[in-house]
């Protein structure tokens, strides 16, 4: 260990999914002797980040508070880089940890590099192979990989992607995905919601669809197609209830409310805290989503997922048969959803609990690898 002093590890994150997936790592760092855990949030998201910080009782030492309505990618990049430069220079951590593929992720790694600080990349090695889909995440994660010293790959496939790009094997650790650590800590079969509508739904007799959509490349026509397909599904199938916690991005909200507001059996609600959201996923029948994290969580709860995108960087659950790529065309999304509602065999084929993304011990492996990297044998 460096100079017998504590290892200073700074976790940097800014959006809801990063917070959910970094929370178990931060908790593990906090309880580990010999480590000083420091959290810096860019707050690229504000309310949706705070929901997660409150749930996991994480109090960041640094909060850059950069979010602005309608923020562009360049604006987030500039504001985060400027703020992070100052914080990293002041704290001088031994390592910065970033997660995944957001603008905060890439900029966190870049700011660390400019200060010659080591970088650990949590959820490393996911690749779609298309630099514009997901946009800009595919490029964010590749560039972050280039700037990282330790790569925490959730799966063997993710490790292979990194090896193909020339990353040295000894710097890649297969850990599983920390999202499973987070999920296991909040899902409870006896969970009761605080929100009336979620308690009133007849989960036994209705087909309950959980919908989310927010991807930048889906804004506009693809998202209109998605919501029109959902409308078609609800109009045809009178036993269906749709719950859609709508992302706070005003561009998403405008499309969602213009197509789905006021429809019978469609519930547009505010983004849920992680605990009710995970438990809703556990109770619903079908998940329709363009989210990355939800593609990892739902399979472990045995819920069929239709991915509202044209590709995925998470092929493991597709291979296992729990996830299907539905694309962004109205007819195909309608057809696949309708089939899951009305064809029991098809439903049962997809509704298998599988866990290619982890066993709930990813954070433990990450912290162990960091200690070993700095010379502490566990
Ligand atoms: C960002 C990430 C994306 C991730 C997604 C998770 C980038 C480039 N994109 O999406 O990878 O999947 O977060 O949700 O990093 N807003 C609020 N309050 C909030 C959050 C958002 O009002 O708590 C509104 C703001 O008007 C903000 C807008 O939503 O300007 C979009 O936020 P942004 O972080 O830019 O979202 P995305 O790029 O869509
Ligand atoms: N999630 C949540 N509340 C919601 C919707 C999603 O807590 O209302 C959680 C979900 O369980 C997953 C994460 O947020 O862990 C996914 O975030 P998002 O879809 O915003 O981003 P992505 O995973 O696509 O980057």
UniProtKB/TrEMBL annotation:
<dbReference type="InterPro" id="IPR029767">
    <property type="entry name" value="WecB-like"/>
</dbReference>
<dbReference type="GO" id="GO:0008761">
    <property type="term" value="F:UDP-N-acetylglucosamine 2-epimerase activity"/>
</dbReference>
<dbReference type="Pfam" id="PF02350">
    <property type="entry name" value="Epimerase_2"/>
</dbReference>
<keyword id="KW-0413">Isomerase</keyword>
<dbReference type="InterPro" id="IPR003331">
    <property type="entry name" value="UDP_GlcNAc_Epimerase_2_dom"/>
</dbReference>
<feature type="domain" description="UDP-N-acetylglucosamine 2-epimerase">
    <location>
        <begin position="27"/>
        <end position="370"/>
    </location>
</feature>
<protein>
    <recommendedName>
        <fullName>UDP-N-acetylglucosamine 2-epimerase (non-hydrolyzing)</fullName>
        <ecNumber>5.1.3.14</ecNumber>
    </recommendedName>
</protein>
<comment type="similarity">
    <text>Belongs to the UDP-N-acetylglucosamine 2-epimerase family.</text>
</comment>
């Amino acid at each position: 260990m460096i100079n017998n002093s504590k290892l200073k590890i700074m976790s940097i994150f800014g959006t809801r999914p990063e917070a959910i997936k970094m929370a178990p790592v931060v908790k593990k760092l906090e309880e580990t002797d010999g480590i000083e855990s420091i959290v810096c949030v860019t707050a690229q998201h504000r309310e949706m980040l705070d929901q997660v910080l409150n749930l996991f009782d994480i109090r960041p030492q640094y909060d850059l508070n950069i979010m602005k309505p309608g923020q562009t990618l360049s604006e987030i990049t500039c504001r985060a880089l400027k703020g992070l430069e100052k914080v990293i220079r002041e704290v001088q951590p031994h390592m910065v940890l970033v997660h995944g593929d957001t603008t905060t992720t890439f900029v966190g790694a870049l700011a660390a590099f400019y200060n010659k600080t080591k970088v650990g990349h949590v959820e490393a090695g996911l690749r779609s192979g298309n630099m514009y889909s997901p946009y800009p995440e595919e490029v964010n994660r590749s560039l972050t990989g280039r700037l990282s010293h330790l790569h925490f790959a959730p799966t063997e496939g993710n490790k292979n992607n990194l090896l193909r790009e020339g990353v040295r094997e000894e710097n890649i650790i297969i850990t599983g995905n920390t999202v499973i650590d987070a999920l296991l800590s909040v899902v409870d079969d006896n969970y009761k919601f605080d929100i009336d509508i979620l308690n009133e739904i007849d989960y036994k007799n209705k087909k309950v669809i959980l919908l989310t959509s927010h991807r930048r490349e889906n804004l506009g026509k693809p998202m209109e197609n998605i919501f029109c397909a959902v409308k078609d599904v609800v109009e045809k199938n009178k036993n269906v209830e749709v719950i859609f916690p709508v992302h706070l991005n005003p561009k998403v909200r405008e499309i969602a409310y213009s197509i789905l507001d006021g429809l019978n059996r469609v519930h547009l609600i505010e983004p849920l805290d992680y605990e009710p959201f995970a438990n809703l996923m556990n109770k619903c029948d079908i998940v329709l989503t363009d989210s990355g994290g939800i593609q990892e969580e739902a399979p472990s709860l045995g819920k069929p997922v239709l991915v509202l995108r044209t590709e995925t960087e998470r092929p493991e659950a597709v291979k296992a048969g729990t996830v299907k790529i539905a694309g962004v065309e109205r007819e195909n999304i309608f057809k696949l959803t309708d089939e899951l509602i009305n064809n029991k065999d098809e439903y049962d084929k997809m509704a298998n609990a599988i866990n290619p993304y982890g066993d709930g011990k990813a954070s433990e492996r990450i912290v162990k690898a960091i200690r070993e990297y700095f010379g502490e044998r566990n």
